[in-house]
Amino acid sequence: MATDFKSIPIIDIAPLLAKWDDPKMAQDPGVCEVVKQLDQACREAGFFYVKGHGIPETLVKEVRNITHKFFDLPYEEKLKIKMTAAAGYRGYQRVGENITKGVPDMHEAIDCYKELKQGMYGALGKPMEGCNQWPHNPPNFKELVESYISLCTDLSRKIMRGIALALGGLPDEFEGERGGDAFWVMRLIGYPGVSAANGKCTPENDIGCGAHTDYGLLTLVNQDEDITALQVRNLSGEWISAPPIPGTFVCNIGDMLKILSNGLYESTLHQVINSSLTYRVCIAFFYEPNYDAAVEPLEVCVQRSGGTPKFEKAVYGEHLVSKVQTNFVM
């Protein structure tokens, strides 16, 4: 369960990444220290920063920059990749089309998902079948973002090996039938500054993204520097800021990991309010279980939390589709 945390911890994961595929990684002192910090962060906040993650800072910034360039384009240009249900909910959505708990969010976005081939998961996969819609302008957008996705997928898998150890399991607990063919989601999001809403001083709703938890296992957040907008709710209901820290990702755990951990780890509520005058970009990468994974509490977590499963089995793809189909106005 989340606590009354007042700040979000920073974890140097370099020792974990150095030994991630070592059969004896669980005995390595450096790995053990990272695992201890991951466990504390996941229990107390459900959020943490990672540094020493190995993804080049030049690429991290380049992805933000090219996203800014896309959102700077005329509306008509952006509509060339408009999101539709027929496109598997992939593509561009304008400000206000994303809905959180019935309220339009003040952001625009490009939504991408791991591509599902027709018939791959039968009826379960049908709503999400399709190819990602990539803009032709700016040039090189698809190639740059796909290389970034590949690195984020690899990094997330390695962090999840550390979290598996933190829960008392084996390093590969979240591979195989649970996450060996991990699904992923990526949202490239633009939050207008407070003066940008149709020339008004203040938009009707200043919530860039309403309070929510994430759906899957682990989220990596790459946010513009110098603008603090992400807020995380602690146990007392206070909103704690997660300011950008150069060289880090903000990480948080999602609903599927909450189930797998039998509630030992919480998927914490968070929201985005861009109260600056400056347009803000955020790239959120969501690492998920296998699309068809039946997710239920790990036995080791049940034993560590009173001996009784607290959650029923959930099929990840069903959970995703139920959220996606209620999150958009098209």
UniProtKB/TrEMBL annotation:
It is found in: Cytoplasm, Cytosol. One of its GO terms (molecular function) is 2-oxoglutarate-dependent dioxygenase activity. Signal peptide: none annotated. It catalyses: L-homoarginine + 2-oxoglutarate + O2 = 6-hydroxy-L-homoarginine + succinate + CO2. The keyword Cytoplasm applies. GO terms for cellular component: cytosol. Transmembrane segments: none annotated. SUPFAM superfamilies: Clavaminate synthase-like. Pfam families: 2OG-FeII_Oxy, DIOX_N. Residues 181-289 form the Fe2OG dioxygenase domain. Keywords: Cytoplasm, Dioxygenase, Iron, Metal-binding, Oxidoreductase. Belongs to the iron/ascorbate-dependent oxidoreductase family. This is 2-oxoglutarate (2OG) and Fe(II)-dependent oxygenase superfamily protein isoform 1. It comes from Theobroma cacao (Cacao).
